[in-house]
Task: structure prediction
Amino acid sequence: MELFDYHCFSNLTPKEKEKISKESRKVILPSEQILYYVGDICDDILFLKSGSIKIYIQPKELSSEEMTLYELKSGSQCVVNLFSTISSQPALANAITVTPIEGWLLPRETLLWLIENSSSFREFKMNDVNKRITALINLLTNIKFSNIEQQLLNWLYVQGLDKIKITHENIACIIGVTRETVSRNLKKLEQKGHLKLGRGMIFLD
Result:
C-alpha cells in the first residue's frame, strides 16, 4: 500500500498531492517501539504502510492489567493519534508497535492546511473522526459498564467467526482481566448455551 492509496487522498488535486509528498516523511520502526503514551501530544499523523500497532490503556479503575482497544493495520488510521494531532490534546491511550512497521508521518501543520484548503479531505476526515471517536466512546462505555460475560460475548462476536482459535490467557490480555476470570465466565456462557468450549477453541452457537 502506498500513501495515496488512502481513501482520504483520493479526490485531492495534483497541487495538494505534491504538497503532501514534499512534507511527509517515511518512517521505519522495529517491533516493541513505543509511539506515544497517554498524555503525550502528537505532532504528526501516521499513515501505516505495513506492520501492526497496538493501541491500549491501563486504567486503574477498570483493571490492573492493560487492555487492548484495537490494533492498527495497513490502510487504517489511529483515532487516538488523529484526534491528538488535530486538536493538540493529550493522547487518550498508549501505542506500541507489535511488528516492525513502515509508513509515513504527516506533520500537524500540513494536516491542518489540508483541512482548511481541501474540501474533499476536510469532509472525509471530519466524518471519519466523528465515526471513530463515537466508536471509541462506545467501546470504553461498554468496557466500563458491561459485566465480564457481556464483554466476552461482544469481543467474540466482533471477530466474525463461528470457530475461534485462541487461548483463555490471550483473551485475558486483550480485555484486561485475569485468565481465571475469562475461564470462569466462558464456562458460564457455555452453560447458558451461548458457546461451546474445546481445547484452544471456542465455538459460537
